[in-house]
Design a protein that fits this description.
It is a single chain. With 215 residues, this protein is α+β, with helices and mostly antiparallel strands. It has helices at residues 13-22, 27-33, 78-85, 141-148, 158-171, 177-183, 194-207, and strands at residues 40-41, 50-51, 57-63, 66-72, 104-107, 110-113, 126-128, 134-135, 138-140, 213-214. The protein has a 5-stranded mixed sheet, with helices on both faces. Helix 4 packs across helix 7 and helix 5 (158-171) packs across helix 6. The longest helix has 14 residues, at 158-171. It is elongated and about 60 Å long. The two termini are 33 Å apart. The protein binds FE2/S2 (inorganic) cluster (2 copies). One FE2/S2 (inorganic) cluster is lined by residues 93-96, 98-103, 113, 115.
Length: 215
């Protein structure tokens, strides 16, 4: 995907930072240490050993400012919990292995691949999905720029792109187009709509659109 945003001058931090945010490497450890878990004493385990599952445990997530609860098996990813248990379907499943970015959500402001994070890891954190980018019929400036610049074809990658882009601008409202593109280096558009995305990015950077809503 050489013509993906940011691929031309991709710095070492982009993909690495993205994966760091995903918590993929910490998934197994987090299962045993996440404080909000409804841990059950493992009767067969050694002293002090706690385990959860394999059956469903209670999960409560803060999604777009709303508390959502269901029971999920500990192995369930944040992506599957959102889509299949909480009916929050903006994040898309494409690769399901941390390579495409279609499942991108924000967790405490950091863009993460929700397919590589366990749902239980997100307890006690603020999860933000593409659904948060419209409020009372008013589009956030980021998806509004995608619409006005026709920056989608099938649209399957779009929720991940707009969430990642919103995260970049929230972190650095004065980001340059090149900096924004680097922030999107973890996202792939299989339709190849990169040129239109560049127009949307240029429009956002020119307008200094950080948190504005457009009709
Ligand atoms: S579906 Fe998560 S990175 Fe592709
Ligand atoms: S618009 Fe189709 S994958 Fe990006």
């Amino acid at each position: 995907m050489d013509n993906a945003p940011g691929r031309g001058d991709r710095p070492s931090l982009s993909r690495r930072d993205f994966l760091r945010g995903s918590g993929a490497a910490a998934a197994a450890t987090a299962l045993a240490t996440a404080p909000a878990l409804d841990a059950q004493e493992d009767k067969k385990g050694g002293a002090g050993v706690t385990a959860i599952g394999p059956g469903p445990v209670k999960l409560t997530l803060d999604v777009n400012g709303e508390k959502m609860t269901n029971s999920v098996e500990p192995r369930v990813t944040l992506l599957d919990a959102l889509r299949n248990y909480l009916d929050v379907t903006g994040c898309k499943r494409v690769c399901d292995r941390g390579t495409c970015g279609a499942c991108t959500v924000m967790v405490d402001g950091q863009p993460v691949y929700s397919c590589t994070m366990l749902a239980l890891e997100a307890e006690g954190k603020k999860v933000r999905t593409a659904e948060s980018l419209i409020d009372g019929g008013k589009l956030d400036a980021v998806p509004a720029a995608f619409v006005s610049c026709d920056a989608q074809q099938c649209g399957f990658c779009t929720p991940g792109f707009v969430v990642a882009l919103r995260a970049v601008l929230d972190k650095n409202p004065k980001a340059t187009p090149a900096e924004v593109e680097r922030g999107l280096a973890g996202n792939i558009c299989r339709c190849g709509t990169y040129e239109q995305m560049r127009h949307a990015i240029a429009q956002l950077c020119k307008a200094g659109a950080t948190g504005g809503k457009e009709g």
